[in-house]
Every structure is written in structure tokens, then in C-alpha cells.
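For practice. Any example?
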Amino acid sequence: MHQWQSRPIHALFCLTRAIAEQPAHADARFHLGEVLWQLGLTGEAKAAWREATTVAPKHLASWLAFTEACLASGDAVEASAAIDAALALEPGNPPARTLRLLTSAALEDPNADWLAFAEAVRADPGLVAAPARAQLIATAVDRTAGQPGQQAFFEVLASMPARVPLELLASLVAHGVEPSATPAVVASLDTALDEARRRDAVPGAHDAFRRLARAAQSLGRGEAARHLPRRMRARASTGFAPAVPLVWPRRTAGRALRVAVLSSPDASSEAIAALSALAGAGHDVILVALTTPADAKAYAASLPFVAQVVIAAGAAPEPAGARLLASRDPDVVVDTVGLGAAAGPWLAQRPGRAIWTLADHEPPLADRCVEASASAPPRRWRRSRAGAWRADEGGAGDAMGSRSAGAPGRRCRHGTCGLLGVDRRPARLCPCPAFPRAPRMGCGRSGSRRARPRVGARRGARIRRGAGRCEPARPGAPAAASRDRAGEGRIRARSCAPRAAARARPRDAPAG
């Protein structure tokens, strides 16, 4: 009961107790795997279903769940053995036949019977209703594109777009763009796009929205082409945002501008040509190639610049892999793939201090869209804020000469520590009136002029440490000073900004 009332933790305790009392209870082990899967513990869920098939070899539901878990984890060989055991128990079971087809597609079996599967879906649309199973079917369709019987399957999906999961809607629309699509599929594209726009952005749907957006752009459906990318970016940026920022609070040492390029062999020729501005510019270039490790080196050699570091991230980079790039503290990440690759979750990790795109990404996944021409990038890279993140002449590690790394301007809680990182000028050190012995980091807005605490006219005052008195910063600004009761020469400046810093000891106070 707890499981169906969205109380998985309570259900976990109850099922664990039931298994302890009856170790051979197959239903309890099956539902335990479901609860673990609901909690995101896929490995533990797979182990629970494996134990259920061992304890009760004739429990069909455990075999089917174990097969789906194996397919989701990429273990097609073990999934094939599990589904064979399930079909031996009940050869005509529709879910078992569906999983048999998916397993054959995962093993790239050319004899997968898509025509029989299409007839099964026509008779029972619930076979593709579950999101996890729909994702497996969409992956199988992409892996075995063009096999006999797939046209019939797409026609079945086109006849009921309102009952098709979002992942399969993306496969349907992507197939409808191709010349081999049948007239029935082409006629259903507008209905399928309208249905996709009404769907909620459920977890894991970002890639489906990306594929739908690309198809809408190819079809020239302007409204869908504007709406669907926004759904994808919103889902990726909120669902994959890091708990803490990956980049350092301040820029690490190094005078050269660090540029990371996210690229793939499918990137446009205009974007690749624009990257020629990196050749001979004196930047530290890092290439994140959306290829396999075996192809990354050859792809890097084909680009018009030399990358000091090459990272092979795969066709769909994992969000956790962004930490590897963030550890090198790039000043700017240049995206050249846009919606052409499933890199939205990776970009949502913010592995660089700024993200620019030469493709079609927009905020919040990209900070700026740069024109993909050979002349625009060098001009923008010289005059942009990213160029100001480089170290100053005084040295990158020295606080007197380092820049503020683009950090947002903030006030100290005492109110007297000024602003940090509000402009591109070198940050400077000057004494803080509230703490005479501690230096203060000023904003340096006026260049060589000494930075002052930002306080109001009525409360602004400057303490002269040598004279032991409080002098108003402007004529007419009230200031009051009084001796401490113990006679230690402390001066209370009531008109200085914060109460927490209202006391200060003069160094050369006259003897009382």
C-alpha cells in the first residue's frame, strides 16, 4: 500500500521485513525491486530482481523486470537470456514478446520482427505507454533504422499521437523528416508537434525535446521550433544544474586565455571555419570532442587549430564528465554543436566561467551567441569580458595585480569591505577604517584612485588613526566621538556605516 501512495521509504521497510520473515516470497522481492528503481537505485533494483528469479524461477514478472533492467544498463546478452526464460514460461505474453524484440534490436539482430510488434501495439497501445519502456523502444528504433516492418510501426504511432509517449513522438517526427516516410506519417507531423508542445517536461525528456526541436526546424514549423528548444533548455538547466559551482571562485593562475571548444564531426562548416581564429592566438585551447576515444585524435587533427588537451566525451557526454573540464578552469567554453548533439545536461553543469555558442543554443545553456563567421570571433574575443579574466601585468597569483575573475559585486556583511569584481580594473588593497590593521579589497573603479567604502552621506566618515578623532567625509555630515569609560582611548564613530564595525582603537591616541 505504501508503494502506491508515494511512500517508497515506508514500503522499503515493510518489504524488507516481509522478505526476512519469508525468504522465498517472490512478490515481496519483485516489489522491492520496483521501490528501489523508483528511488533511483537501479543497480540495487536489478540485484533484487535477479534474486527473485533465483528464489522463484517461475515468477514471470520478475523475469520481465530483470530483462528491462538489463536493457536499461546496456547488458543485452544477459537480457537475452532472461527474456528467453520468460518466453519459456509464457510464449504468448505480449510484454515478453515486446522485450524479445528490444533485446534483438540491442544485439543488432537483423531478424527483429517489427511488423508483429506493430500489430501488437495496435491491439494494445499500453505496451509502449511506460516512459522507461518507451525510451528503450526509441533506442531500438534508432539502432535498427530501415529494417523491414518499421514503417508499419511508425504508421501505428501516427494513428494515435495522443497516446504515444514523448520519446516515441520524437522518433516519429524524426522519421517523418526523412524522404522514406510514408504519406500517413507525414500527414501526422503537425498533430504530433502540437501534442509534444502540450506535454510536461518530465525528468529525462530533455533529449526528446531536442530531437523534436531539430525536426521542427527542418520542417520549417516556426512556432514549434521556438517553443520546443525552450522546453529542452529549461528541462536541462533545472534537472542537471550542479549542487555547487564547478569552477573556482576566483580565476586560477595563468596569463593565457583558456578556451575550451565543444565540437563533434557533425558540427557545421561555418562553426569550424570560425574556430580558425584560435590558431596562433596564444590561447590555451582544450578540445572536448563528442567522439569515441579512438576517433578523438584524428578529429582533433582535422580542426584548424592546435589543442593542447583533447577530451573524448562520447556522442552524448555525461554530466559528471564536465568536472574534468572544470578542473582546468577554462575562461570560456565555445559550443559548436547546439541542438545537433545531446550536450544540454553537460552544458548545464557550467564547466567554464562563460559559455558561448556558434550554433543555436540560447540562455540559460549559453551566455552569448556569437556569429559563426571567420572574422567575428577574434574581434569579440579581444573585446569581451572573457579577455579581461586574464592576469594583469602584476601577476596572476598576486592580489595586488590580479583581476576579479568576473565575480559578481557583493558587499561584505560589515558594510566596509567595499565591492569585489564589479568591473575589469585591477583590484587594489587599501586600509579599512573599521579594522585599521587589516587591508581591504577595493573595487578600484577609478583606476589609481584609492577605493573608498560605499556609505551614505549622512553616515560616511573617515577615521584618522593618527589624530584619534573622527572627521566627517563631507561638510555637514554628522559625526560623534566619545571616550571609552575605561579610558583606553577607544573612539566610537557612530556615523561610520555598520554597527558591527563601530569601534576602532587608534594607534597613537593621546594619553588620557
Observations:
- The CA atoms of residues 297 and 310 lie 7 Å apart.
- Confidence is low (pLDDT under 50) at residues 381-512.
